[in-house]
Amino acid sequence: NWYALVFPMYIVAVYLAFKGPRTMGRVAEIMFFFFIPAMIVFLILAVSEVNFIEILPAFEYGLKPPLSAAVKGAAAFGDYGLMLMFMGRTEGLTSGKQMKGYAIASGIIILFNFLFVLIFGVIGVYQPDAIIRITQYNTSLTNYGRIDWLIALIWQVSQILYLSVLIFGASEFIKSAFNIKGRLPVMIGIMLIVEILIKTVFFSADRINDTFGSTMSYYFFALQYFLPLILGIISMVKLLKKRRRKQCRLKMYGAK
User: How far apart (Å, rounded) are the C-alpha atoms in residues 190 and 178?
Assistant: First the structure.
């Protein structure tokens, strides 16, 4: 039963989102000691199966196909835009450290997808759940058992935390847009709407990819890349104006 799997995940994810960023951060700290070693083992198991011939010849059809694919994949790989909500003042953590953390995480994702292409090549598009499939052809696992499934389970648990961040971000946006005070009803409403859409409109992964990878991909690309850039410029301009006003006040009081 589908709901026997996802309903408990929904409950935990909504609870974490309701408790807020501090609770999600504490859970992430605990999961770090399980998730990082699991990813390292996954990458080691995957490296033994790579074939660099799969990426050659590079740019055979020019830059247009990879650039077009980057735009179409914005909805799938650009959801870290929600992390902008956590880019404010954080005690003991500067924006520079935050950006380094995001850069390292992005690098791991790029490396993982690169290895996926080196293993599956052109048939990669027919392999769903990349993190599970990436080690399925490793022959050494036949001697030691499918330990990769245990690692995949750790990754699956981390998805609950990922889902809670999405729920929290979506609820905060809706609360701010419609001036709603209650957090829990908004989160429950979001999950109900998402589940209804999955069952009625986006009833398959292919349907979701076709919808968000077509014309809507340009909207997501602009939202996730250009909007943060514009907001960053606006923030810098406001900061510079604030500093200038402060300097003017100091000069005025100094003159007196």
Answer: 14
- For the chain, give the DSSP string: -HHHHHHHHHHHHHHHHHH-HHHHHHHHHHHHHHHHHHHHHHHHHHHTT--GGGG-STTTT-SHHHHHHHHHTHHHH-GGGGGGGG-S-BTTB-HHHHHHHHHHHHHHHHHHHHHHHHHHGGGGGG--SHHHHTTTT-TTHHHH--HHHHHHHHHHHHHHHHHHHHHHHHHHHHHHHHT---SHHHHHHHHHHHHHHHHHT--SHHHHHHHHTTTHHHHHHIIIIIHHHHHHHHHHHHHHHHHHHHHHHHHHHHH-
Residue among 143, 186, 150, 145 at smallest CA distance from 168: 186
Model pLDDT for residues 81-99, shown as the tens digit of each residue: 666 666 655 566 566 676 7
Q: Identify any residues that bridge with 90 across adjacent strands, giving them in sequence order.
A: 93
Query: How far is CA 231 from each of CA 234, 236, 244, rounded to the nearest angstrom?
Result: 5, 9, 20
135 in Cβ contact with 45 (< 8 Å): yes
Query: Taking the model in full, what pTM does it have?
Result: 0.71
Torsion angle of C-alpha atoms 159, 161, 163, 166, degrees rounded to 10: -140
Looking at residues 54-81, what average pLDDT do you find?
Answer: 74
Q: Cβ distance 158 to 181 under 8 Å?
A: no
SS (H, E, C) 72-99: HCHHHHCHHHHHHHHCCCECCECHHHHH
